[in-house]
Amino acid sequence: MAYAASQPIAFPHKTHIQLGVSCIDCHSGADIRDAAGIPSVKKCMLCHDKLAREKPEVKKVIEYANKNIEIPWERVYGFSKTAHVKFRHAPHYRANIPCATCHGDLTKATVAERVVTHNMGTCLTCHRQRKAPEDCAACHY
Amino acid sequence: MGGKVSEHRWGMAIDLDRCTGCQACVAACHAENNLPVSNPEQAALGRAVHWIRVDRYYEGEFPNIRVKHRPVLCQQCDEAPCEPVCPVYATYKNPEGLNVQVYNRCVGTRYCANNCPYSVRFFNWFDPEWPEPLQLQHNPDVSIRESGVMEKCTFCIQRIKRAEEEGANNLQPACVQSCPAEAMVFGDLNDPESKVSQLAENSRATQFLEELGTKPKVFYLERVK
Amino acid sequence: MDRRNFFKIVSTVSGAVATNACGDKKPLIPLLVPENGIVLGEEQWHPAVCTECGAGCSTIARVMAGERVIERGEEKFRERIASIKKIEGNPLDPVSGGRLCARGQAALQSLYNPDRLRGPMRRNGTRGEAKFTAVSWDEALKSVADKLKAYSGDQILFLTNAPQGTRALTIQRFLEALKAPPARSCGIGDFALERKAAETVFGWRGVPVYDLANAHYVLGVGADFLGGWLSPVYYSRQFGEFRQGRGGVRGHLVQAESRMSLTAASADEWLPVRPGSEPHLIVALSRMLLDEKPAGQLPDAVAQSIRTADLAALIRTCGIEEKRLRGIAHELGTSEAPLVIAGASVVQSNSFEALAAAHYLNALLGARGVLPPQPEPPSAPASGNVLEAMKRAKVLFLDGENPAYVLRAAQSLGALDLIVSFGSFLDDSAAYADVLLPAHHALESEAAVVPLGLGGVAVTQPFVRPLYDTRPIGQILGQLGVAFEAVNVKDYVAPMLPADQTWENVGRQGGYWKQNSGEAKVTAKELKWSEPVFAGKPEEFPLHFQPYLSLQFHDGRGANLPWMQELPDPVSSAMWGLPVEIDPKTAEKLKIATGDWVRVESGSGHLEAPAYVHPAALPGVVSMPIGEGHTHYGRYASGRGANPLAIVSPVWDGAAGEFAFGATRVRVAKLERKPALIQFSPQDREQGPWGER
């Protein structure tokens, strides 16, 4: 079930990937840390300081940057606090799980939408297939 | 819950001949595990939470009286009395021998705390309060528990997880790490060379209330004399 | 440069993940672009210095991203900042060895305390009413600078608890430029007596360092070295080694104290000596030893004083059986590595004499475990009779010290012309201030601190931005219209370093340390001991009253830390309020049970607190941990519990002029009020359902 968040900017993942930007260029914690991270507007401006400044959506980015306020992206994946899930990206990256397994095929996506359901069923199915730990405390602590 | 049998079996040894009762471990646990802080009203109702405490015992009469200290935390029992009484399987033994409390499964019957002879399980009677900016201190590696669930010592499972990535050379729960007298030792009971395995074999080693048959994985080295 | 590295250069700019994960949305408060280079999920460790007491432990702080809400004008913003998550001991520091006491770890809650002062303020009510209005730094500084011009000399009094290091030296230079007397401390927990005894007997400047780890048989007298005396982390580590760190040898500890302290509880034997009889105990043991062995290094005059001492009278005074004392004297005399550690955890009128006598006893024993300190500069804290100094003063500067709490000085504070506080909190004394000029918190500051007695220096440089509109202490003092040069950490540390240490290295490590070594050579020639002086007639006030430095609050400054309020007291297991400790016999006589409210009255005042009937308290000696009973100290401490120091009569140590806070006599009466003592473990566990083990 795709969940379309109402994002402040119609960020096209597809366009950026086509230009050769890889996931961890912007979500730079995905390979080594728990959190993948959503990039700061400062990082957007590394390129958009020069590139595509005339596009209407990029203008919005520039406006946030000028006001020194982060773009209020709405997270589409994540767990509520009461789920008590301590998801760690790094071990999944190390196990060579493609980003698309959990985040869908973003080469076709524009604005991030929740296309993969993240619940214990999806997690466990994969963990079972790959003989990864099924201990509750692997994720819940 | 199955999964494969782990190579690790975590345990702890506490040398009471070294322990001074200074409570550094208690503060360390609060800092590491986002323990809720109560208030006088809740504390008076017995609702304060300390995953580790220092018990004190008096022996004899003045002037020939002795005071003894014993840090008490979850004993991570192999035969844990808390486990079979949970109607929803929120507490169980994990493959590494840890007695795990799953917060999201817990429905708050408190049977487990009632059945724990060591009184080391704590129910969240209220949502913890962290007046701004005290929340800045929260350890992002550990959940913040809400009202209605049980909680207890985890042997700092977040540190164990971290060690999976960074190597277990320096793996110590927060209490062990902080102990000034180096009374506490943590390690793998499956590794006969580990310090904790050797201390567990020490002639002074005992288990707390071992006659109950709980088979704790915390070993106390009794004070000399 | 590949793309990955191109991005890495700016990867110090953090990602903007809102903490609200799917499901629980927070109100939409805009998140500011972080100015600092903290990355979500990344951890950094930075060296810091603990200033919760004067021991000078080097620590390391775990820094990760955290989010706070700030207000700018009418609007609220969220801000992601580098925040400290945990403080641990610095593993490179031989003082802490990577370990840290409870209070040191709780220093974090002082940094992030919700009751911290947000910026400079000026009084807008009457003195002590604690009503203040926020003002600009310029206005606040100018108001102080304008007034300050009219005063000089001992009209100016500066009270600080800064340990030896850059802060203390900056203050010293400021006072020199002002032609004002050196800064002072309030005299609780700064070990001025220990310094004076070492200076008198050995000619040392600083507190001696005891090599506990290598001793075999140790006699502790009045020094709660596992509790709050000198450097508790250092001595706890030494104690672990002393007990179980040396294979074949297990150290034996005999502790003589008039209270069951943590050290007494950990000892193999406890000698419950009467308050003020510590010198008598030491001289009695010396006499017994001198009867059997040569005087060793002992000066003739001292040996002569000991030989002519009336042994029977000495033994009577301390209240310990002669046979037991002879046994201890014998053990000390025959031990391969004996050591006497004397201190004044509770100061009596004759404590100085006890400390000096202990130094002589070590000389007699040929004990090798008393090591000279790293010499302190003359800027080391002077305390003495601060109340007298306050009477002469017109202007008072407060830097961390709280005379209204420690010395009951509220009245003197009211009479001053100008009071300026640099502290982070509105405490009992700051409530009387005219101007509040909050300096950066220690964890936001650069500093070098010399560990108490030990060789080396601990260093910290700022690694988190100041949370509020505060300023470095050197900058504040520099803007009060007095020309002087504030001390820079690098300039302070660089000249102290040996050839093999560079400033860069020391900055990265958090300090450099060296082993204490050298011999203790007695240079004094005199030994005196006197009967203790107590305030209050025994017929009127039959009980001794001993306030003591608490594990959780020290001299009271830790009382605003929620973790420390929640920490069960090691004696009574009390939380959120501390009790009066009464022995079972006295309690029985007065029909007092644990939890009952009692009134403790001295010639100087009275307090009301719950009672804890302590099975190991000396009959006739009432003790109470210091820390609670603040009139002002934020939400966690204000109006909670009672301050034992508030009923202490001003008795000053005879030989050294220090505040003898253990020399007051009291009477106790039960109050008919609903019992209330909050304990974590209400019963001592031996009474628990599973029996004693």
Please render the helix and strand layout as text.
The complex is a heterotrimer of chains A (141), B (225) and C (693).
Chain A: E1 3-4, H1 13-18, H2 23-26, H3 41-48, H4 56-67, H5 89-94, H6 99-103, E2 113-114, H7 120-129
Antiparallel strand pairs in A: 1-2
Helix pairs in contact in A: 3-4
Chain B: E1 10-15, H1 24-33, H2 40-44, E2 53-59, E3 66-72, E4 91-93, E5 99-101, H3 111-115, E6 122-123, E7 150-151, H4 157-166, H5 174-178, E8 184-188, H6 195-200, E9 205-206, E10 218-221
Parallel strand pairs in B: 1-10
Antiparallel strand pairs in B: 1-8, 2-3, 4-5, 6-7, 9-10
Chain C: H1 3-9, E1 31-32, E2 44-49, E3 58-72, E4 75-89, H2 102-106, H3 108-111, E5 121-123, E6 132-134, H4 137-148, E7 156-160, H5 166-178, H6 192-202, E8 209-210, E9 217-221, H7 232-244, E10 252-256, H8 262-266, E11 269-271, H9 278-290, H10 300-307, H11 311-318, H12 322-334, E12 338-342, H13 351-365, E13 370-371, H14 386-392, E14 395-399, H15 403-406, H16 410-414, E15 418-421, E16 435-436, E17 447-449, E18 455-460, H17 473-478, H18 489-493, H19 503-509, E19 511-514, E20 543-549, H20 562-566, E21 580-582, H21 584-589, E22 597-602, E23 605-613, E24 621-626, H22 634-637, E25 664-670
Parallel strand pairs in C: 1-4, 7-14, 9-10, 9-12, 10-11, 14-15, 15-16, 20-24, 21-23
Antiparallel strand pairs in C: 2-3, 3-4, 5-6, 5-16, 8-13, 17-18, 18-19, 20-25, 22-23, 22-25
Helix pairs in contact in C: 6-13, 9-11, 9-12, 9-13
Relevant terms:
heterotrimer, A: mainly alpha, two-stranded antiparallel ribbon, 7 helices, 2 strands, C: 693 residues, alpha/beta, N-terminal domain of TfIIb, 4 domains, 6-stranded mixed β-sheet, globular, disordered C terminus
Largest sheet of chain B: 4 strands, mixed
The structure class of chain A reads: mainly alpha
Secondary-structure element order of chain B, N to C: EHHEEEEHEEHHEHEE
* Rg value of chain A: 17 Å
Biggest interface, chains and residues, is: B-C, 64 and 86 residues
Number of domains of chain B: 1
Question: How much beta of chain A, percentage-wise?
Answer: under 5%
Largest sheet of chain A: 2 strands, antiparallel
Q: Return the domain count of chain A.
A: 1
Q: What's the number of extended β-strand segments of chain A?
A: 2
Q: How far from one another are the termini of chain B?
A: 44 Å
Strand content of chain B: 15-25%
Helicity of chain A, in percent? 25-40%
CATH fold category name of chain B: Alpha-Beta Plaits
Give the quaternary arrangement of the chains.
Answer: heterotrimer
Mean pLDDT of chain B: 94
CATH class annotation of chain B:
Alpha Beta
- Overall mean pLDDT score of chain A? 90
Structural class of chain B: alpha+beta
Strand tally of chain B is: 10
Q: Tell me, what's the shape of chain B?
A: globular
